[in-house]
Each structure stands twice: as structure tokens, then as C-alpha cells.
């Protein structure tokens, strides 16, 4: 019996490599978020490998080549896995399909993170390079594959595998609608580490892609919602104060500002937010409390969106950024409404203007003027780390508001940048006065100390702003709140004190990492309140009420709703009995809210 020659052996090995390469690519991809790969459900791993095989065979048959599609797939999934690896490292979460719309913003802040590769990244990177080299060296060339010469048969099989690929993708994207569930897929996207570890990154991305679009609510009718909102508008109608009586409203949404004590115990050598804590004890003309937000560790514009519009991320796809996907026309929002009452409307952010599509979104919300980093750089600003300091920015806010006082009342909405993650580096321009009293081997102690020192600077800046307005005669209402807590990885010292870590949080702690403090303060008489708990979609109602401004129709509805369900976020709902639930899990009847919100975002024509 003749032995096969070297060419035949190489061709057989090449075909086998082409067959198993998609499986190797999948496991290398999974290794970049979980090294070594453990915990993934067998049926999910098997399905993911089949999906990868269908994808590669479809591309191979359509292109009539083996080497090029497998090389391109290897490079693309190496890039995807690397992105997943760093997103989890910096944000303690994983990518969703909608994150790819935010790539520009991610690049804006990339220089502030430490991208030093760890062992798993180096190992997988080298493994991918070896795989690509083997594909290029061993896989048969196009001219050596006789099957490729029959174009009609090749294209026929390509369509068969394409149909299989589409069918498998549809099955995962609409998994919830199937009665016979073979895979293990969770509809709770907020346990991203557990989900990606158990389900696999391929299935998770396919499943989340089903949330890219917003479906009309069942029973929705634009004309009906319009009529119902008119009724709420009539109910809410009231006398609007004259322009001379309307206060300036200055809103400071502070980047990553939060209080660790809302999550768990932490002991420091000095108070990291003494001024806010003193206000929370009760002060004249001050309202304090906690707001529940829908994001954690990032996606700042979603908190802006909820505050300014009164809409809730609870009814929008997981991972979506309304500023980028859904704001395509003028909509009703606080700045547009206040503009109709005679307010000057100004939005400011001391960072790049191309972040989160704000330059397009803000005018749709009714802002008549915007200021970004380029504007403030001309003022020789003070920096903390690599960002403009809160002290400088809040001082600049006061100056900008005063410039406009002769033209009537001003609504100024401002998003700070000083406290943006990451917190791992050391900086000469960041004082470290706050120290955590804990063992030196406590995980992420240095990062959290850096963070708390930033919080202290924000607290000082807000105190300076209050002291300034205490001395002015012009009626001013100040609003201060955090957009979200920092990435949970930076709260590890708190979790450590709770006897756990970020991967094994209790349900209550999961909810707590979405709670941030808020303050409403006035230099004139308003009713004092403390210890309130609400959600950011309702906060705008409270601000307008404290300013003596009647609510417009949609806000009037949400104010009524807040009496029954005082907390609604993408994470949880709390009803008026104090019962907390994961959003979407036996939630109170929010069907009307969902319909009104769809009308506000997609069908209402702002006046």
C-alpha cells in the first residue's frame, strides 16, 4: 500500500484545520474574557461553535477562498476579544452590540487608562498569530479546491449555510419567545460577568442584538396618547411666575459622584464629602436624598437623558444610548419647556464635543447654546489629573450664567469631567488627603483612595458654589447629583468589608451600586426635605416644583405615577409599599408609561 505523499497529507491537515479553526477562534475569544475558559454551559459552547462554523462556511463558500475568510475572522474576533477584555478590566462589564455606536467616545478617554497587557491577553494574542500563520501556510489555496470551480454549486451551498446562520441567530435573538429552550440564556443583563462566563460571549452578543430596536408597545395609538396627555396638561396647568420671579436653575451632574456608604461600610481618616453630608442632616432651603440611576461605571448620557426628558431607560434596549440612536428630531424636554417660558438654555461639558453625540442631541432637547472643552481651554483652566477641575468648571458656570442674566432667567445644565475613571495612576496634581483605614492588602485600595480624594474635591467645589450664591440677590436654584457610581471594581474595598467581591454581590448590593446622592439648594425660601429616595427620571419634576414652575403634560403624568411607583430605573422598581423588584420582573403596571414614552420619543412633534 502506497503512503500518501506530503502534498496530500498537507491538504488533509489543511482541510481539518479549516474545519476546526472556527472552534479555536471561539475558545480563544472566550479566553479573553475568562482565562482559562471554565463555567460555560456545554450546550451553549456547542451552539456557539456551530454558529461559528456556519459563519465561516458561509464566508468561505461565498468568497471561494479558505485562507482569506478564516484570516479575517481571526483578526476580527481577536479585536473583539481584546475590546471585551479591556472593557471588563476598566468598567467591570462587557460589550453590548450598541456599544459599537459609542466607539468614538471610548477612544476619547482611552489615553487615561493603563493598557499594559496581562498574561491572558499576551497568551491569546500569540495563539491567534500562530493560528493565522497555520491557516496561511496549511489551508489549501483557492486553485487547489476542486469544489470551488463549480460556482453554481458553491453558491447554492453558501445560501444553505447562510440560511442556517440566520436561523440560529434568530433563535438566539428571540430566545424568550420560544417554549422549548435548549440553551441557558439569562434575560438579566446586569450580571454581565456571570452571563458571559456561563453563556459565552457569542451567544450574549447575539441575544443582546435583539434589543437594538424599540418595538411599539402593545395597544399603542399615537392619537390616544396625545389625547390622554392633553388631559394631564390641563390638570397640571397653573400660573407661571413672571420672568422677573423665575429663578435661575443651575444643574451640576457630577461625573461618577457617589457615596460608598450607600453600598457598605468604609472607614476613612477624614470625611470625603463633609459638605454634602452636612446638607443631608437637614438645612434651610435644601432638599437631599438618593436617586436611582440606570447605569453604573459609564454611559453618562443615559442619566442626562432620563433627567432632561422624564423618560426611563427601563423601556429601552439594554446598552442603548438614546442620544445616539433615538434622538433624531426635536422632542419635549426640560430645556425646551423652560425656553418657552422665557429661559435662556445652556449646556456645558468641559470635555470633547464629539462625545456621545451631544452636539446633535442637545439642540433636539431645546438647548440654545452649548460649550465644550475647546471653549474652556482658552481660559487657562485648572486641571486635576488630565481633566478640568470641578472647582474651575463650577466657577466658569457661575460666570456664564451671570453673562446671560440681563436676558432673563437661565437654565444651565452642566456635566463635569474631573472624576472620570480610571483611578489607578498616580498624579502630581491630585492631593491624597483622604485615606482608607484598612489593611494594605485590601484589593483596589489605592484606586478607591484616589477616587475618594476626587469626590472630596467635588464636595469642596459645590460648597464654594453654594457660598457664592448665598451672597447674591438673584434667585438661584442649584441642583447637584452624580451621574452614576464608578466602575464596581473600584468599590472592591467596600465589597471586601461586606465579605464578598464584585462577582458575587447580593441582590440588595446590586441595587445599591446604582444609587447616588442628590441635592437641591436655593438662596430663597423653598420647603426643606431630606432622606428622599426617587429615580432620576422623576428628579426633573422635583426641580421644577421647587422652582415654582408648573409641570408640562408628560411630567404631570410621571408625577402622578411617582405616587404609586416612586422608583423606576432600568435596574429596579420600588412601589409605594416599599417593595423592590428587578425591572421587568413582576413589575407594577407601567404599560401607560411605556406608551407615553414611546409617543414622546418617536411620534410627538415638539412645539
Q: How does this structure look, described?
A:
- This protein has 22 helices and 13 strands.
- It has helices at 6-31, 42-63, 67-91, 103-108, 119-138, 151-173, 192-199, 201-208, 222-236, 274-280, 300-309, 322-325, 334-340, 358-365, 373-377, 390-403, 445-470, 492-497, 507-512, 536-546, 553-564, 591-603, and strands spanning 248-254, 286-292, 344-348, 369-371, 383-384, 387-388, 410-415, 476-482, 515-522, 529-535, 567-568, 572-574, 580-582.
- Strands 4-3-7-1-8-9-2-10 form an eight-stranded mixed β-sheet, sandwiched between helices. Strands 11-12-13 form a three-stranded antiparallel β-sheet.
- β12 (572-574) and β13 (580-582) form a beta hairpin.
- The longest helix has 26 residues, at 6-31.
- The chain starts with 5 loop residues before the first helix and ends with a helix.
Question: Mind summarizing the main beta sheet?
Answer: 8 strands, mixed
The count of β-strands is 13
Task: Give the end-to-end Cα distance, rounded to a whole number of Å.
Answer: 87 Å
Q: Judging by the overall fold, what is the CATH architecture of the largest domain?
A: 3-Layer(aba) Sandwich
- The strand order across the widest sheet is 4-3-7-1-8-9-2-10
Number of helices: 22
- Structural class by secondary-structure content: alpha/beta
Poorly predicted segments = none
